[in-house]
Amino acid sequence: MTTTTAPRRTALYQSHKLLGGKIVDFHGWELPVQFESILKEHGAVRGRCGLFDVSHMGQVFVTGSDALAFLQKVNANDISRIGPGKAVYSHLPNEKGGVVDDVIVSCLAKDRYLVVVNAATADKDFAWFKNHARGLDVSLENKSDFFGMVAVQGPKAAEVVMFLAPKALALPRFGAMELMLYGLPSFITRTGYTGEDGFEFIVPNEIVVRVWEDLLAQGRSLGAKPCGLGARDTLRLEAGYLLYGEDLDDEHSTCEANYGWVVKLDKGDFIGRDVLARQKKEGVRRRLTGVRLLERGVPRSGAAVLVEGREAGKLCSATYSPTLAAGIGVGYLDRPDLAAGTKAAVVLHGREVQAEIVKVPFYQSPHLKKGA
Question: What domains can you pick out in the chain, each with its CATH number?
Answer without folding.
Answer: 8-55+145-238 (3.30.1360.120), 58-132 (3.30.70.1400), 285-358 (2.40.30.110)
